[in-house]
Amino acid sequence: MRAYSSYKDIVKLVKKVDSIGLVPTMGSLHDGHLSIIKKALIKNDIVIVSIYVNPKQFNDSKDLKKYPRNLEDDLEKIKIFNNIIVYAPNDRDVYNEREEVKKYNFGEITEIMEGKLRPGHFNGVATVVEKLLVMFKPNNAYFGEKDFQQLILIKELVKKIKLDVNIIGCETIRESDGLAMSSRNKFLNKSERKCAGRIIELLGKAKKMYKTSSLKAIKSDILKQA
Ligand code: PAF
Predict the structure, then answer these.
(1) Which residues contact 64 (CB under 8 A, 6 or more apart)?
(2) Which value, in Å, is the radius of gyration of the alpha carbons in the chain?
(3) Calpha distance 36→24 (Å, rounded)
(4) Ligand 1: residue whose CA is nearest its atom 1
């Protein structure tokens, strides 16, 4: 399966297509991504899958360096699909030399949780997603609900920049113990992986208690079991 590094080649190919779907990814594809692609294929004539580890959304150079990259494997996994086009650019295809991230103002949503822990991350995500949306002008663009904060931010982004595209959230696909599938799960050693499964189990318990117990009681009960 071929991967294009020039978006202009793809734009030429999809010129006469009625409905274009876009599935932005950073590669290292797993069943979560495949389920998003399947969903996108139901509604669109052509689905563009972008595979690009966007350096601008990493605030830690070590994290960027070790982020898994395996384009050959990714192409192998998605060659089963018809009607998809893969965009796998290099940094120079996406950014000009010394190009800075755009500074958006999304307010509180980017200042809490992951936004607080990874300063600049969401500006980096929005910068690349805006570029992809402007390049391909898809009718529909698909993002996992796993990264819920990112999904909300992208919905805000398209309102802000007034792009005519539907942003569609896709359900989280999980491992058998409930942990959300993620390209980063392979970084976990055995004991961290076990802990991750336990966290999701306890979150499930907390969710069940939510209707009948106070937050204080839930917190104390769950922490006792952790
Ligand atoms: O969710 C991701 O994989 C990335 O943040 C995205 C949306 C592809 C932008 O680089």
Answers:
(1) 53, 55, 58
(2) 19
(3) 10
(4) 25
Ligand 1 contacts CB of residue 89 (under 6 A) = no
Residue ranges of domains in the chain: 3-170, 188-225
Q: How far apart are CA 167 and CA 53, in angstroms?
A: 21
DSSP letter (8 states) at residue 151? H
- Tens digits of residue pLDDT in 40-93: 999 999 999 999 999 999 999 999 999 999 999 999 999 999 999 999 999 999
Asked if residues 26 and 147 have their Cβ atoms less than 8 Å apart, the reply is no
Interhelix angle 71-78/31-43, rounded to 10 degrees, is: 50
CATH number of 3-170: 3.40.50.620
Read off the pTM. 0.95
- Residue 21, number of CB atoms within 10 A of its CB: 27
Q: Which pair of tokens denotes residue 26? A: 């950073």
Q: Do 112 and 76 touch, CB atoms closer than 8 A?
A: no
Contacts of 165 (CB under 8 A, 6+ apart): 22, 133, 137, 138, 139, 140, 141, 158
Indicate which residues carry an active-site annotation: 33
Amino acid letter for position 113: M
Q: Sheet harboring 140-144: ordered strands across?
A: 3-4, 84-87, 46-51, 20-25, 140-144, 166-170
Give the nearest ligand 1 atom to 25 CA.
8
